Amino acid sequence: MTIQITIELPEGAFSALGSNPDSFAQQMRLAAAVKWYEVGMITQSKAAEIAGVSRHEFLEALLRFEVSPFQVTPEELAEELARE
User: Fold this and answer.
1) 17-44 per-residue burial string, b: 16 or more CB within 10 A, e: under 16
2) pLDDT confidence tier of residue 15, bands split at 50, 70 and 90
3) 21-38 helix and 44-51 helix, angle to the nearest 10 degrees
4) pLDDT, tens digit, 9 for 90 and up, residues 34-61
């Protein structure tokens, strides 16, 4: 099941990315999913689902957006290294 959401945007929003409304909407879904993943709000699987792409495609998007696919805080990393 899907839900459709309507968002009002100024006409110039589409030209800013050189896209049409459908492409812009897809890009916005992907950008939101990447950001939510980056700040730890959602998992990779959920982000891919929200973005409407495969997990592999989502990982490629993380590379394009320069976001690490590994979401570990410095404290978590230090704890893990201390256990070894």
Assistant:
1) eeeeeeebbeebebeebbebbbeeebee
2) confident
3) 170
4) 999 999 999 999 999 999 999 999 999 9
Measure the CA angle with vertex 70, ends 28 and 51; round to 5°. 20
- Domain extents for the chain? 19-83
pTM over 0.85: no
Distance CA 28, CA 61 (A): 12
Cα separation, 16 vs 24, whole angstroms: 10
Scan for tokens 């879904």, then name that residue. Answer: 29
